[in-house]
Amino acid sequence: MASPATAPFDAKAFLATLTDLPGVYRMIGTGDVVLYVGKAKSLKKRVSSYFRENHPSPRIALMVAQIVRVETTVVGSEAEALLLENNLIKRLAPRYNILFRDDKSYPYIVLTRDEFPRLAFFRGATDRRADYFGPYPSSVAVRDSVHLLQKMFRLRTCENSVFANRSRPCLLQQIGRCSGPCVDLIDAESYAADVRLASMFLQGRQQEVIGQLTSAMEAAAANLAFERAAQLRDQIQSLRHVQEKQFIESSRGEDVDIVTAVEEGGMLCVNLAMVRGGRHLGDRPLFPGNASQCSPEEALLAFLQQHYLVHPVPERVFVSPLPSDNEAAEALSALAGRTVPVGEARLAMARRWVEMAEQNARLAIVARRATLSMQGQRLQALQTVLALDGDRIECFDISHTMGESAVASCVVYQGDGMRRAEYRRFNIRDITPGDDYAAMRQAVLRRYDKVAAGEGIAPALILIDGGKGQVASAAAALEELGLSHLPMIGVAKGEARKPGLETLIFPDGREPLHLPPEHPALHLIQEVRDEAHRFAISGHRAQRGKTRRTSRLEDIEGIGPKRRKALISHFGGLQGLADAGVEQMCAVPGISRELAERIHAALR
Known about the structure:
There is one protein chain. The protein has helices spanning 11-15, 43-48, 58-64, 78-92, 139-153, 160-163, 171-174, 188-202, 206-222, 226-245, 296-307, 327-336, 348-386, 436-452, 468-481, 520-554, 561-571, 574-579, 582-586, 593-602, and strands spanning 23-28, 34-40, 69-74, 107-112, 119-123, 130-133, 256-264, 267-276, 279-286, 316-320, 342-343, 392-401, 404-414, 417-418, 424-427, 461-465, 488-492, 503-505. The protein is of the alpha+beta class and 604 residues long. Helix 9 (206-222) packs antiparallel against helix 10 (226-245) and helix 14 runs parallel beside helix 15. The longest helix has 39 residues, at 348-386. It is globular, with a radius of gyration of 30 Å. The termini are far apart.
């Protein structure tokens, strides 16, 4: 007789115990592996649909055949079920759930609520202390819009610490991108009027903006203020030029998302296009994980349910293909707390948006296929040249300025691209400043101590950005850890540091290898090496900047972390503090006159 653990799953008996309440279900296979997580308005109806004789999806039919038990959790509402489902999918990563990368950092444009509001790029959690417009599909779209608003409305973009300490106009004011509120070149009332117009523009009310500017221009001309009238005329022309470029603009000024799913040649892409204030802002293609053999409709539904848990739900969502039921609309309405229409586009402009999104999805598939093919050729060439077994490459580089603030980087390449979530930086300590060999040895020891203990992933190849000395130091570290069997090469820069002339150095004393400049294996090595170099430099600059901002203040008696932070924040940096007078320093909370005089003397 079979034990309970190995007995076949009795679906009929289990279904008889289910409730009609909303909840989340987990399909579990052999070894307690979670195969699939789903939500349901009615657990009984939804789970029962998996156990019918002829399932329309071969992928789900394969999953059902592996079920050994089903677990359910009853919740109070469909919105709660959606939230719990998403949390479980993130934590458990079931193999039959379609997974989208959890990207919570879509960018926004922000207008602060200072006396002279600041226009800026913003990424992160929003709050009520500012006005946010977006989200935008990419940082490029945000920066383009910020530059456009600077030209048309001349709003400041500088940080408050810089704004509060300006004594003369900046370059942006001189080239007509800022009205100079920091040096009183514009009064608060006029600046506030420009802010209102910029806000209206971002809300899609371009015609109202043009109307107000036209009235102001005519009034200025009537009062013989021809210079002001000319400025307003230029603003109106800029706005009309924007409208002409936005040929896919909606006159309704609405917020709409367009989501399309396209499958071609076994590759599936979900493309999200955004319309904010009636302006089409561009799109973002996404390639889901665990999507093998799933239909475009399944991928689209999974995206809607995962994406809008962490991003604002727009007024409506146009989709293609159209879901077979109303599940998507019900889910988004539950999240937004209002009715959210989810359906196919009917008006000509909306149909044009959907067609563009589908076309861009197809182009993204072509581009991704070409990239994967190129990366595969490069990796295969490298594996052939160096007789490698795996596809994981880790590369180290050291960055410092004459020994100051040394930082080591370790970047990871695997399969078809860089794995940024696995990058690591190491602040090098307790070595002679400028000793690159000791720094490399320390970085390798710190990176692979867990691998030596059997806890980490060993790479197929270790790249060292450097020559014989760095390679020897890294090899000594690996030998100390008992990992000398790991393949490793150094990448020494060629004559005049010219790309294509690199020399590959082996730790075992073999003759260095020179690959032709056009060799695909060398191209992959250069790509990974350059990324390690970039990551090391950015870490070093941040560390060096932090040190230089605080080191001179740390030597002054009476300046602790709180006062140091207050001074740096108030004056916008150490240079601004050094340029300040004693009276200005006394204005900072916690700084007495005696202490201000001491700081002033120390920074002369």
